[in-house]
Amino acid sequence: MSDNNFILITGRTIKQGMASVSGKKSDNYKKETSYVEVSKNVLQRMNIEEGETVILESEAGSVEVSCKAADLEEDIVFMPYGRIANSLIGTDTGGTGMPNSKSNVVKLIRKEAQTN
Amino acid sequence: MTELKTFKNITCTFCGALCDNIEVKVKDNKIEELKNACAISRKKYEHALKDRTSPMINGEESTYQEVIEKAAEILKNSKNPLIYGLSSTTAEAQKNAVKLAELSGANIDSTSSVCHGPGTMAKQLVGMITATLGEIKNRSDLMVFWGANPVEAHPNHSKRYTMLSEGLFKKNRSDREVIVFDVRKTPTAKMADQFIRVEPGKDFELLMALRLIIQGKKPETEAGKVAGLELAEIEAAAEKLKNARYGSIFYGMGLTMTGAKYMNTWAAMSLIRDLNNDHQRRFVMMPMRGHGNVAGSEITMAWQTGYPFAVNFSKAYPRYNPGEYTAVDLLANKEVDAAFIIASDPAGNLPKKAAAHLKDIPTIILDPHWNFTSDFADVVIPSALKGITASGTVYRMDHVPLHLRSFLEDEWPDDAAAVAQIGELIENA
After folding, report:
1. Which residues make Cβ contacts (< 8 Å) with residue B232, sequence separation at least 6?
2. What are the recorded GO MF terms, alphabetically (chain B) (predicted)?
3. pTM greater than 0.95 (yes/no)
4. Which of A1, A12, A89 to probe the B interface (max B CBs under 10 A)?
5. What are the pLDDT digits (tens) for B368-384?
6. Nearest neighbour of A93 by CB, restricted to B39, B50, B326
7. CATH architecture of structural domain B53-114+292-427
């Protein structure tokens, strides 16, 4: 895996769960599902500040989200389940019905770097 | 003004743990006090009466009878409809939905196909040795969570049934050893005695290595490692499994959504069989079911059709084929020409490109609350709130059925009534 490609793990968080039952269309639900957790070492290596907007790109699509530093291994990034994460998940189910919701490869790009 | 009335042992329907010890105090059809609810459940009850749907056709206000009739018309005129969702409704509504699928020659699939469906496919291959949560609470001395994070997804599960529960023979946390296998150190992993980090997508390899070691064989390694772990670490984990008297493995979507998908759970279920084979210990396994009645969706569908999800009625008899009759595949391949969504939000929860097809076909949604799918649905049917304003049956993750009591009043009928009425209109047309 190259330096800025990661396996995207989508999953539950307690705040995402609380927001999902408090109105899917609320600002809070959007807030709790529109960030990506990245290893502190990766953020440092890519010179990304916590809270900075980053671009995640997969074969299925791309999204802009803010990033949070987290205690993660350097081969994965994590996003809470939700509509934004699902923009990155493809529809190939390998004959099982299940998309690759925890095994999609995404590219992490600094938004600032792209606009410069 | 009415008096404050207390309802005890109410069941929360948010997750598959179905906590049935919620206490609510009600006055003037409003919840005034709430006890024993987890952080998510509390929000669910607080929000229950807000943000409610109302009958709509093509964005215009309508009547309940008109939306029911419109739904029947859409399904009757469709050549290959999809009925999808079902995991947050009652077994009664699920049963009526199967009948509706038969009447309309529909595909019927539940959210299980994007959840624990692959695990269910594995069960069909190898079977799963399991137990009730009560038995695990009372007896299990080794608890393994594999690709599961109940601390965030099922917040009261550990207190009621596992790590922190007070069982008959296992009284507290110190009576149980807890191991978490995962790709990240989740809050659940932080509560464990041992966290074993699995290389992403290598669960199958690790499970098979554990099986071989338990069978007395030596697994092949790559540079001395399997799934990113030294062989000695895997041997030590296998030893712990062997030394348990009553082990339990709770698995999450870390197994069903990655690499080998159903083969991951097949390997885990086979490991459980191996551990039980020499009668030195007992081992059981259970999926950490997400939605309140997703277990019920599989049970009801299997009872009604012979199959747990991904069922097609286009030939008037049920056919089963995950990968073909599952919602993501049917939508992504644009094979369905109408959709009836029952208590779910595919526009929020399915891959965007699959959900997009719902905007191109007549879509009906039956749900008590507005969501991303009701935003564009052609027909919106409101409904009562399961376990709050509607009664019914739901199945806990260990397949124990629980009866839901209603304790508030509602202006809308429940899901079961709505689905039955649509079916009757099609049957009698």
Report:
1. none
2. formylmethanofuran dehydrogenase activity; NADH dehydrogenase activity
3. yes
4. A12
5. 999 999 999 999 999 99
6. B326
7. 3-Layer(aba) Sandwich (3.40)
